[in-house]
């Protein structure tokens, strides 16, 4: 069998559910890190769809909640390491916001691993890939996000 | 038509008969509140209650009402009208004040070319089996607004609670025809009728809140800028509970929702309140009703001045929900008393 | 001292202080509570004459947080020229906390206010009393000794006050307003220190996410989106609430559970570290939804993460107004 035929057979057999994960990456560190992973041909799961923001401090908790409402199975938010923010303190402001949001999501019964916060710098292509692998594994374990399926 | 008797232990039989052709709405206890819901298990029906918190207007005018759904297929748009409008409904256990509110709602929603087909269709397909109030609450004042705890004209079938049974009277032809289907109902006796009369008198005497409302619209009209409005609204927090739970309030908002990536969506109508600070906010930024003073004034004028002018009857049914549930205890009865103390002025002609 | 006698003392304290403030013209008006027109309520009242001081009462049904009447969005307490009046507010602890926190957020100027501190002994849980009495109308409610006496149609019951108190009152540690020099009169708390282990939340915290989801859903799903909770809360003073935004429309306004969930989740997020635990939201809900669990959790988040309790110190910034390099980040994901 040719390679192409083998691959198409594989994808036909594997009709299992693939999570859709939205990733908000800060432009200066995390997005650059993801780019580095790509350029270095480091493999990581293709379940994530990246949204580039100037800074993790730009992330309004509404984005995260709206993503869950829209049916995204997982949300990843990534910024620069504390102390390394391009805008000096954007990620520090964001960190407090994320802490409160994570606690509240837990309170209301959203599984803790659906929404993930992480720091990843521009030179850490490896780290980015590893963290995304971990997130995808978590979301696959949790299953699809059915809580907000529209009833109409 | 002769009056009949429905024993309370026959209600399940009644339900089983009716539910074949109708959606049966009756009071149940949900989360510790009495509310009118569609019954699937007749054992859930509660017969010992004053009235529901949320008025039964939500059956024909729901809090979340889908006006239409649409699907986009390429260049074609498919519109789907709301389903279930042809379904027939019975509301069992509605009180005379709420039954009268259905008349007021119909006045509003059926104005000529602005006829609201969806709501009026539901109203047409709804039959009211009401129960007179043997023990009105101290906050009820239906007798002050041309009503009565045993008012039956606005219902299709009127029941009187005689302890272990109901006296059944068909009022409209719709109601009488329905009663004919229940051939197993016993006939009422003379003593049943006498008992009902006694209960009616007892209920009328039990109403303690008596408001003087003669010509209130003539007092309200020239007193738009009277200082009474500041007094009436000083403690109002503008929460809108009064309008949400008022059986005659009709304000609504219309919002559009869509499901992205699926090219479909719907238009939804939801309840709104004139007490919201955004209600009259213009796109220019100007807000003619910028404070609670104007908003409380608007609500009172609507019920007691504008509605009588437009429809020839008061816009309030005296159910007392706003009095019981106002969080700041801004008592409507106290406000009405203050208004009636204003000496009627000669009507001033407004020149433009 | 039993509750009944405590109430008499508190009432006397309110009237004495109010009389003094009005006589000496230190305030233009007093904002307090008077007897409601129906049982289970109290009526907020504004008085400007010394003769009216005896209308002021205290009766464990004073659940409205009076600080709400001072936020800029409610322009009631002004004179003819549109200037703010000097107000003396009858303040239980949560009202005082609300005033202090509003001044931290630059919404009110404490210089124009006199906080009449009282040692609040708790607010009656109206819904719980109504549940207990059932469908009978309540005609009278009074305090006798340490009990609540409820008289209604064919019913009279005596209920222990401690059990029929608002849930948030049971764990309250700031019963009087924190003391502020020159602003607080009456009885105030000197140097309040909040020690709380939040053990009442341990039961809920141990539930699985699925159990929590079901619990919260059963709590909230009859919400009718009337926004009474938002309007009565002194901390909700935005000119345009997030649900009303339409450029863009963020979240739905219908009674579908996904919309109800979103409203309460985001409102809780906006209240984190700002809620003063007055319980007015639960007291005024027409459906009787008890937001106690959510509000207590908000206090826990603020205390355990940032060692912050709202409305204690007018100089301490709210945690969301600041940041620290050393903030905890145990919730951030790390590589295996």
Kindly describe this structure.
The complex is a heterotrimer of chains A (152), B (352) and C (336). In chain A, helix 2 crosses helix 5 (125-142). Chain A is an alpha/beta fold. The N and C termini of chain A lie far apart (46 Å). The relative contact order of chain A is 0.21. Chain A has a single domain, classed as Rossmann fold (3-Layer(aba) Sandwich), CATH 3.40.50. Chain A has a 4-stranded parallel β-sheet, with helices on both faces. Chain A is built from 5 helices and 4 strands, in the order H-E-H-E-H-E-H-E-H. Chain B is an alpha+beta fold. Chain B folds into 2 domains: 4-206, no CATH class; 216-340, no CATH class. Helix content of chain B is 31%, strand content 22%. Chain B is built from 12 helices and 12 strands. Chain B has helices spanning 11-18, 57-60, 96-109, 117-124, 173-181, 190-206, 216-220, 228-233, 241-244, 292-311, 321-325, 332-340, and strands at 4-7, 22-30, 33-38, 64-73, 76-80, 88-94, 126-131, 157-161, 165-170, 186-187, 252-259, 264-271. In chain B, the strands form 2 sheets. In chain B, strands 3-2-6-7-8-9-1-10 form an 8-stranded mixed β-sheet. The longest helix of chain B is centred in the last third of the chain and has 20 residues, at 292-311. Chain B starts with a strand and ends in a 12-residue tail after the last helix. Among the domains of chain C are: 126-164, no CATH class; 199-321, no CATH class. Chain C has helices at residues 3-23, 93-104, 126-133, 167-170, 202-205, 209-220, 228-232, 257-271, 280-284, 292-306; strands spanning 29-35, 42-47, 87-91, 113-117, 138-144, 147-152, 155-160, 184-186. In chain C, strands 2-1-3-4-8 form a 5-stranded mixed β-sheet. A 3-stranded antiparallel β-sheet of chain C has the order 5-6-7, covered by helices on one side. In chain C, a hairpin with a 2-residue loop joins strand 6 (147-152) and strand 7. Chains B and C meet through strand 11, strand 12 and helix 11 of B and strand 2, helix 3, helix 7 and helix 9 of C.
């Amino acid at each position: 069998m040719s390679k192409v035929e083998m691959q198409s057979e594989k994808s036909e057999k594997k009709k299992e559910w693939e999570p859709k994960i939205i990733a908000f990456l800060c432009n200066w560190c995390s997005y650059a890190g993801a780019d580095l992973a790509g350029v270095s041909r480091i493999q990581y799961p293709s379940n994530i769809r990246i949204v580039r923001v100037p800074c993790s401090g730009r992330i309004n908790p509404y984005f995260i909640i709206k993503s869950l409402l829209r049916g995204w199975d997982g949300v990843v938010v990534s910024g620069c390491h504390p102390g390394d923010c391009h805008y000096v303190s954007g990620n520090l402001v964001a960190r407090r916001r994320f802490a409160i949001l994570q606690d509240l999501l837990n309170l209301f019964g959203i599984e803790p691993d659906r929404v993930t916060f992480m720091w990843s710098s521009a030179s850490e292509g490896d780290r980015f890939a590893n963290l995304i692998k971990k997130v995808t594994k978590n979301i696959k374990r949790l299953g699809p996000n059915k809580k907000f399926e529209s009833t109409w | 038509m002769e009056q009949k008797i429905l024993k309370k232990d026959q209600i399940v039989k009644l339900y089983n008969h009716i539910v074949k052709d109708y959606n049966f709405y009756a009071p149940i206890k949900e989360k510790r509140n009495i509310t009118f819901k569609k019954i699937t298990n007749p054992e859930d029906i509660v017969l010992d209650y004053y009235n529901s918190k949320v008025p039964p207007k939500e059956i024909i005018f729901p809090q979340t009402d889908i006006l239409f759904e649409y699907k986009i297929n390429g260049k074609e748009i498919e519109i789907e009208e709301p389903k279930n409008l042809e379904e027939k409904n019975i509301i069992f256990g509605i009180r005379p004040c709420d039954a009268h509110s259905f008349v007021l709602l119909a006045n509003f929603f059926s104005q000529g070319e602005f006829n609201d087909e969806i709501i009026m269709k539901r109203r047409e397909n709804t039959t009211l089996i009401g129960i007179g109030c043997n023990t009105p609450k101290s906050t009820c004042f239906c007798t002050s607004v041309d009503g009565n705890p045993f008012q039956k004209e606005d219902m299709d079938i009127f029941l009187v609670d005689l302890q272990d049974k109901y006296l059944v009277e068909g009022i409209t032809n719709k109601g009488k025809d329905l009663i004919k289907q229940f051939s197993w109902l016993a006939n009422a006796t003379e003593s049943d009728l006498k008992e009902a009369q006694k209960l009616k008198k007892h209920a009328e005497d039990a109403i303690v809140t008596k408001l003087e409302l003669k010509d209130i619209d003539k007092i309200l009209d020239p007193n738009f800028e009277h200082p009474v409005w500041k007094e009436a609204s000083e403690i109002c927090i503008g929460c809108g509970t009064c309008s949400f739970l008022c059986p005659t309030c009709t304000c609504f908002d219309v919002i559009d929702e869509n499901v992205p990536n699926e090219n479909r969506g719907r238009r939804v109508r939801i309840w709104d309140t004139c007490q919201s600070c955004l209600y009259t906010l213009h796109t220019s930024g100007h807000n003619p009703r910028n404070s609670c003073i104007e908003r409380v004034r608007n609500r009172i004028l609507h019920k007691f001045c504008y509605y009588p002018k437009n429809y020839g009857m008061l816009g309030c049914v005296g159910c007392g929900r706003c009095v019981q549930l106002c969080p700041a205890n801004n008592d409507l009865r106290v406000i009405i008393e203050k208004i009636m103390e204003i000496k009627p002025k000669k009507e001033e002609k407004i020149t433009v | 001292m039993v509750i009944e006698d405590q109430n008499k003392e508190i009432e006397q304290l309110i009237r004495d202080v109010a009389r003094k403030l009005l006589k000496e013209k230190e305030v233009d008006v007093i904002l307090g509570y008077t007897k409601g027109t129906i049982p289970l309520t109290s009526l907020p009242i504004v008085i400007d004459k010394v003769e009216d001081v005896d209308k002021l009462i205290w009766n464990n049904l004073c659940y409205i947080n009076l600080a709400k009447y001072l936020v800029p969005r409610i322009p009631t307490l002004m004179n003819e020229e549109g200037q703010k009046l000097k107000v003396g507010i009858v303040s239980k602890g949560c009202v005082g906390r609300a005033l202090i926190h509003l001044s931290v957020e630059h919404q009110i100027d404490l210089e124009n206010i006199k906080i009449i501190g009282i040692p609040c002994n708790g607010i009656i849980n109206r819904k719980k009393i109504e549940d207990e009495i059932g469908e009978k109308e309540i005609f009278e409610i009074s305090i006798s000794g340490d009990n609540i006496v409820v008289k209604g149609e064919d019913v009279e019951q005596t209920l222990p006050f401690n059990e029929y108190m608002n849930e948030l009152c049971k764990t309250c540690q700031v019963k009087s307003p924190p003391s502020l020099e020159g602003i607080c009169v009456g009885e105030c708390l000197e140097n309040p220190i909040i020690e709380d282990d939040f053990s009442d939340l341990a039961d809920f915290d141990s539930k699985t996410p699925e159990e929590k989801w079901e619990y919260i859903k059963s709590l909230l799903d009859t919400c009718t989106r009337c926004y009474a909770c938002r309007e009565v809360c002194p901390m909700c003073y935005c000119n345009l609430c997030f649900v009303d935004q339409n450029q863009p429309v963020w979240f739905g306004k219908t009674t579908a559970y996904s919309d109800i969930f979103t409203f309460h989740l985001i409102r809780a997020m906006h209240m984190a570290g700002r809620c003063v635990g007055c319980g007015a939201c639960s007291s005024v809900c027409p459906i009787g939804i008890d937001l106690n669990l959510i509000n207590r959790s908000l206090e826990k988040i603020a205390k355990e993460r940032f060692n912050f309790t709202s409305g204690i110190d007018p100089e301490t910034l709210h945690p969301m107004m600041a940041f620290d390099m050393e903030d905890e980040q145990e919730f951030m994901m790390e590589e295996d």
